[in-house]
Amino acid sequence: MRAPLANFILRSAVWLGAIVWWLSLRRLPSTRWSDIPLGARTILGLAMTVAGIVVFCWAGRALAGAVPNAIDAPAVLLRRGPFRFVRNPLYLAAAAMFVGTTTIYRLWEPRDLFVIGAVAVLIHLFVVYREEPATRRRLGPAYDAYCKQVPRWIPRLSI
Question: How far apart are CA 132 and CA 127, in angstroms?
Answer without folding.
Answer: 6
